Automatic annotation (TrEMBL):
One of its GO terms (molecular function) is dioxygenase activity. Residues 3-127 form the VOC domain. The keyword Glycoprotein does not apply. Keywords: Dioxygenase, Oxidoreductase. InterPro entries: Glyas_Bleomycin-R_OHBP_Dase, Glyoxy/Ble-like_N, VOC_core. It holds the Pfam family Ble-like_N. This is Glyoxalase/bleomycin resistance/extradiol dioxygenase family protein. It comes from Noviherbaspirillum saxi.
Length: 135
């Protein structure tokens, strides 16, 4: 069985978050979605559970971080090309996201990213096949 990852993120407005990520081209698994959370499909093995803050809080005794003020995690996704990196950032900005940093070109790796509506940071990277170990 392949390993899967489910990233759980608190969101202030579930419907706005669904619209934001839908505009980037992501789909949602209705079987694992309701009024408290939505299961965003990133790939066959990567999912993001967007959970309403009050529901997210039921999973931890620690306070939920205000990701517009502090950074708890950086979520990094690989892309198939530099163009895909730039396209996703452009879509995020058009949907109300922010670009916290300028693009970075290291020759073997190209990176850029965005903050979603709740301030969660999403880094996007494209690596050459040699750098990614696929050569």
């Amino acid at each position: 069985m392949n390993k899967q990852i489910y990233v759980n993120l608190p969101v202030k407005n579930l419907e706005r978050s669904r619209e934001f990520f839908s505009s980037l081209g992501y789909s949602f698994n209705a079987q694992f979605s309701n009024e408290q959370g939505a299961c965003m499909v990133v790939s066959d093995h990567i999912y993001v559970m967007l959970l309403v803050e009050s529901y997210f809080q039921t999973f931890t005794k620690k306070p939920v971080a205000d990701s517009t003020k502090v950074t708890e995690v950086l979520t990094c996704l690989s892309c198939d090309s530099r163009a895909e990196v730039d396209e996703l950032v452009a879509k995020a900005l058009a949907a109300g996201g922010k670009a916290p940093n300028a693009p970075q070109d290291h020759g073997f790796m190209y990176a850029h990213g965005f903050e979603d509506l709740d301030g969660h940071i999403w880094e996007l990277v494209y690596m050459t096949e040699a750098a990614a170990g696929n050569s």
